[in-house]
Amino acid sequence: MYEPNSSLGPVVVLFLLTFLAIFLFVTFAIWIATVVGKWQVFKKAGKPGWAAIIPFYDMWVLYEISGIKPIYMIFTVIGTLLASIGNVMNSFGQAREVIGLVIASIPVNLVSIVFSLIGLVFSIMASLNLAKCFNKSQGYGIGLAFLSFIFYPMLGFSKTAEYHKLEK
């Protein structure tokens, strides 16, 4: 007969807590690098640097300085809200074994995916335009979109990068 090793439990818990601590530290470091870089980029563009630490307002300022109408960030906001609503409906349905709520959450989740994808497209466009505003390549814009914790500090602390508003 198999007897579980009770001395293994604390080791597993310690491993998981260590992994969680490292994960949280790395996540926080990435967030700090992105915020510090955005702060400098916003200052170069004549906007308040502190805007980089305010959720959604940082996106508004980014859209402004990159020449995209900030109202388009509504797609990202609606996608986020609908995803939250769909997840709540889904979890209530599973917790109470009410299949109707789970089925009702499907259209909400699908619409949230569509809105989130549209928001992603606008965010990528903003990154590409921002790179153009600083006379950088489209590859740099892709870096801003997907590796922001590296490219925003590079752009923000670059001595040669100057902001130029895009002509319409």
Quickly list its features.
168 residues; mainly alpha; flat
Write the SSE topology.
Blueprint: H1 8-44, H2 57-65, H3 74-95, H4 99-133, H5 138-146, H6 148-156
Helix pairs in contact: 1-6, 2-4, 3-4, 4-5, 5-6
In short:
The protein is mainly alpha-helical and 168 residues long.
Descriptive overview:
By secondary structure, this protein is mostly helical. The chain has one domain. The chain is 72% helix and 0% strand. The protein contains six helices and no strands. The radius of gyration is 21 Å and the shape is flat. The model has no long low-confidence stretch (mean pLDDT 87).
State the secondary-structure class: mainly alpha
Strand content: under 5%
For this structure, the quaternary state is: single chain
Tell me about the largest β-sheet.
none
- Radius of gyration over C-alpha positions, nearest whole angstrom: 21 Å
| Helix-strand topology string | HHHHHH
Quote the average pLDDT. 87
